[in-house]
Design a protein that fits this description.
With 166 residues, the chain is of the alpha+beta class. 19% of the residues lie in helices and 34% in strands. It contains three helices and ten strands, in the order ααββββββββββα. The strands form two sheets. It has a five-stranded antiparallel beta sheet with strand order 1-2-9-4-7, with no helix packed on it. A five-stranded antiparallel beta sheet has the order 6-5-8-3-10, with no helix packed on it. A hairpin with a 6-residue loop joins strand 1 and strand 2. About 8% of the residues have low confidence.
Length: 166
């Protein structure tokens, strides 16, 4: 019994050290709202973790949303943009940085189910749960964090901008 305890302890410590060695290191980062918006490029088409809609783009702050591990992105959404019902495979938490963001949960866009989320608001995107959104009269910036890999799956495939590009 003592030998199995020692073996289990050694094995556990090995797993701990290997996972520690392969873990990502969080860099120091401080950004004011004006610095955040200054780092974006309106012509940027980077779409990792986003809706794939024209004009919507992301900036990766940490990690890689396409790989296993923690990630954080900034989502930039132009004014008057509607994002149809979709889900992601991972649980995500979000904070509205700027602009008025309107979010609802369900498998189809319904303006009556939208809740206005002003800057400073937080919301969740539970794994596999459909949600939809709309921006107001100004650009919206949202910080989103999750544990990848992430994806975007539209409830109605006809609403998927990537399917329409094919």
């Amino acid at each position: 019994m003592k030998r199995s305890f020692v073996n289990w302890t050694v094995l556990s410590l090995c797993f701990f050290f290997v996972s520690t060695l392969s873990a990502q290191t969080l860099p120091e980062m401080r950004m004011t709202p004006s610095e955040i918006t200054a780092t974006t490029n309106a012509n940027d088409t980077y779409q990792v973790g986003s809706s794939e809609l024209k004009g919507v783009h992301t900036k990766v702050l940490f990690g890689d949303p396409e790989k296993a591990g923690y990630y954080s992105i900034l989502l930039f959404v132009p004014p008057h943009t509607t994002i149809q019902a979709h889900s992601h495979r991972d649980d995500r938490m979000a904070t509205v940085v700027s602009g008025d963001w309107y979010l609802g949960y369900g498998d189809h866009f319904d303006g009556k189910l939208l809740k206005r989320l002003p800057p400073g608001s937080v919301y969740s995107e539970p794994a596999g749960q459909d949600h939809f959104a709309r921006s107001g009269v100004t650009e919206v910036v949202v910080e989103i964090s999750g544990y990848g890999p992430t994806n975007t799956k539209y409830f109605d495939p006809a609403n998927d901008p990537m399917a329409n590009k094919k």
